[in-house]
Design goal:
single chain, alpha+beta, 2 domains, 4 helices, 146 residues, Alpha-Beta Plaits
Length: 146
């Protein structure tokens, strides 16, 4: 009888260990998938590299747009020109002869050497900052057009 109790207790302990191990592996797999799932709504924010060629105010503006926030209000608070879902930016190109990226609905207002002042769609900020020939995208400190 005592031997049977010990045997039952040992089996229960083994079952518990097995269940805890399975739960641990499942939780670990979920955490790893959240870290590496770029497009997942459950993805962890620290798992993504922030664009290094986009000014922080513009990153905040793009995030506000992506989350359905009030872009006009945020642009006004940061002193960023906003009209018709576009904002005024300076696109710093690699060189004076570097072409302006095409296909992003960029409305060029002026160019001085490698600096381009333009109105760009808020939803294209990340893509423009990663376009070939673009070094940096920022808010204008003063107008290039006069």
């Amino acid at each position: 009888m005592i031997k049977d109790r010990r045997d039952v207790k040992r089996r229960l302990n083994l079952k518990r260990k097995y269940i805890y191990t399975v739960i641990g592996v499942v939780v670990l797999c979920l955490l790893v998938s959240f870290v590496f799932a770029k497009d997942s709504k459950f993805a962890l924010p620290f798992a993504f590299k922030q664009p290094d060629r986009l000014e922080s105010r513009l990153i905040q503006l793009a995030e506000t747009h992506n989350s359905g926030g009030d872009v006009a209000d945020m642009a006004a608070r940061h002193g960023i020109y906003f009209r018709d879902e576009k904002i005024r930016v300076i696109i710093e190109l690699e060189g004076d002869d570097t072409p302006i990226p095409e296909g992003y609905n960029i409305e060029v207002e002026g160019r001085r050497e490698s600096l381009v002042q333009a109105l760009v769609p808020v939803d294209k900020l990340y893509e423009i900052s990663e376009a070939p020939g673009v070094n940096y995208v920022r808010v204008p400190q003063k107008s290039l057009t006069g």
